[in-house]
Description:
Blueprint: H1 2-11, E1 14-20, E2 23-28, E3 36-40, E4 42-44, H2 51-66, H3 75-82, H4 87-90, E5 97-105, H5 115-122, E6 129-135, H6 137-148, H7 155-163, H8 166-174, H9 181-191, H10 208-215, H11 218-228, H12 234-241, H13 247-261
Parallel strand pairs: 3-5, 4-5, 5-6
Antiparallel strand pairs: 1-2, 2-3
Amino acid sequence: xxxxxxxxxxxxxxxxxxxxDDIEFYSASAEDKTSFFLIDYIDATDxxxxxxxxxxxxxxxxxxxxxxxTNGKGLKNKIKELFIDNAxxxxxxxxxxxxxxxxxxxxxxxxxxxxxxIYSVEESPNYFRRFxxxxxxxxxxELKRIISDYPDKNIVNVLSEIAxxxxxxxxxxxxxxxxxxxxxxxxxxSKIPFLQYNFVAEQxxxxxxxxxxxxxxxxxxxxxxLICNKCVDISEYIKVSNLPEDDAFVEAEIQxxxxxxx
Length: 262
């Protein structure tokens, strides 16, 4: 999952400024942007994890953020030190910081029991916005395999193409947890605030008439067009089609018949 998150952030111009075990800090590289993200990777695959223990794990980042221990080095202070030469940016850290919590689960069947807990954490108004991103190793590995098949494509385009799969959408709508790459991609788009879906325009199917016309010989297509435009009727076409195979003669005969009808 860490690799996928890094690719997405890099694609949007974010730089990893700091890392400590399972926590990463990203900052927008553009000078005119003040956007920061804490990524807290949580492993909740242990069978003994309860609602209470998971809530404790989710709240630990907040405690670490404001913790003023003996060294005075809570996460917030560590982050501010990264911008010691830029006071303007340092003053905007609180209001422009969000946290994403990728939570690895053994099975998505456990997700329903955590739903209220996740909601309460995401709605907390303290310090930074929170986005909880549950996933399984199966989902992450499947998505990495798909992305590796398109080394020349931007990851955002690959994710958009996956999200554009209509059949997968209806499968997900009918079954809450599919444990596949499609479901993970949909969560990416809903839980990573800056990740924008690139609309993939589908070519409209060619009308039957147009497909037929595309297969016609030029001469026959000309007659077909005349008939469709009500310039000649079928009987006229039959008469013309029985004329000698002389292009100039046929064209002259068609013109003569059109003038006669006009």
